[in-house]
């Protein structure tokens, strides 16, 4: 004779044992009391044992019920875990991830992580946005992307910023520049007349502006004659001898700057903080969470530029 017992019987058994009352357990399980009573009766008839001692005032486990308790707990827990795993796998097989990153992040940090993620989850669709820091924050706020990796541009109260890297500022010059042989430079040693900067909508320029307003650096940003919207364009101008620039080490470690020279700046030592940016109160879907975990894992094992450190 085949058994009619299923996981619902063990869930009912555990809830009655927890509540000590058929009435309260039925309410928790969203069942009628008669339906719950019938379910427990089916379980007792199938095993041939009385699992509860019933009085007019209470319902308590019998000796046989006490023996069943740990087994039923494990069965229900294993069942719930199995279902959760299956649902997560199903989403990772058909999911989609949208992320945004600053140019240096997209070029320097993401390729290795994406290669590993694609090997694990080849069916997941990935959408990558390469934009300025201010735009990245708005993408996260508008739920256009699941998360972003960039500097903290404006400390939006609705966003969560989780630091992952510290990125030291330095001077980028042509390899034949008079300062190219310097191991370090102080900010006071910067040339005043041939400085190029990224445009004001970028996170790097926004941070340099804050440094200047706080009198942390002795630079008049209003005197800059040439501004560029992305680091690759900046590298091309420097290569043509049009000037030099200030960048964090990671931004200066991309292919565009391969023939240029980075000199770390001290006195003061200033850094950019690169963060995982998410919207507060919004949980990542399983595919996005898996990609973010892959990014974090890769960072722990990645060979980073000398002046970049993990947090």
TrEMBL record:
Q: Specify the domain of life of the species encoding this protein.
A: Bacteria
Which GO CC annotations does the UniProt entry carry? Answer: cytosol
Name the Gene3D superfamilies on file: 3.40.190.290, Winged helix-like DNA-binding domain superfamily/Winged helix DNA-binding domain
Record-linked InterPro entries: HTH-type_LysR_regulators (IPR050950), LysR_HTH_N (IPR000847), LysR_subst-bd (IPR005119), WH-like_DNA-bd_sf (IPR036388), WH_DNA-bd_sf (IPR036390)
Which GO terms label this protein's molecular function in UniProt? DNA binding; DNA-binding transcription factor activity
Keywords annotated in UniProt: DNA-binding, Transcription, Transcription regulation
Q: Which Pfam families match?
A: HTH_1, LysR_substrate
Which segments constitute the HTH lysR-type domain? 5-62
Family according to the record:
Belongs to the LysR transcriptional regulatory family.
Query: What's this protein's name?
Result: LysR family transcriptional regulator
Annotated source species: Marinobacterium marinum
């Amino acid at each position: 004779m085949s058994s009619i017992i299923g996981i619902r019987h063990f869930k009912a058994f555990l809830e009655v044992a927890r509540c000590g009352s058929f009435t309260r357990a039925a309410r928790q399980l969203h069942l009628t009391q008669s339906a719950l009573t019938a379910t427990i009766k089916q379980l007792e008839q199938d095993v041939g044992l009385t699992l509860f001692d019933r009085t007019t005032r209470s319902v308590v486990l019998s000796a046989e019920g006490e023996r069943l308790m740990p087994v039923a707990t494990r069965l229900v827990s294993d069942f719930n875990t199995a279902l959760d795993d299956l649902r997560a796998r199903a989403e990772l097989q058909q999911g989609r991830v949208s992320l945004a990153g600053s140019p240096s992040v997209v070029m320097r940090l993401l390729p290795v992580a994406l290669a590993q993620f694609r090997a694990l989850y080849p069916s997941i669709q990935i959408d990558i946005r390469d934009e300025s820091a201010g735009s990245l924050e708005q993408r996260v706020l508008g739920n256009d992307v699941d998360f972003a990796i960039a500097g903290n541009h404006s400390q939006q109260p609705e966003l969560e910023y989780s630091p992952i890297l510290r990125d030291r500022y330095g001077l980028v010059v042509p390899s034949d520049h008079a300062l190219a042989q310097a191991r370090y430079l102080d900010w006071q040693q910067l040339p005043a007349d041939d400085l190029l900067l990224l445009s004001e909508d970028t996170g790097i320029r926004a941070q340099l502006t804050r440094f200047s307003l706080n009198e942390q650096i002795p630079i008049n940003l209003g005197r800059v004659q040439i501004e560029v919207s992305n680091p690759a364009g900046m590298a091309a101008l420097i290569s043509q001898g049009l000037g030099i620039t200030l960048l964090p080490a990671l931004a200066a470690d991309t292919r565009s700057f391969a023939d240029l020279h980075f000199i770390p700046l001290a006195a003061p030592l200033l850094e950019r903080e690169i963060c995982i940016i998410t919207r507060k109160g919004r949980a990542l879907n399983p595919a996005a969470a898996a990609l973010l975990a892959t990014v974090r894992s890769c960072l722990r094992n990645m060979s980073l530029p000398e002046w970049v450190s993990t947090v």
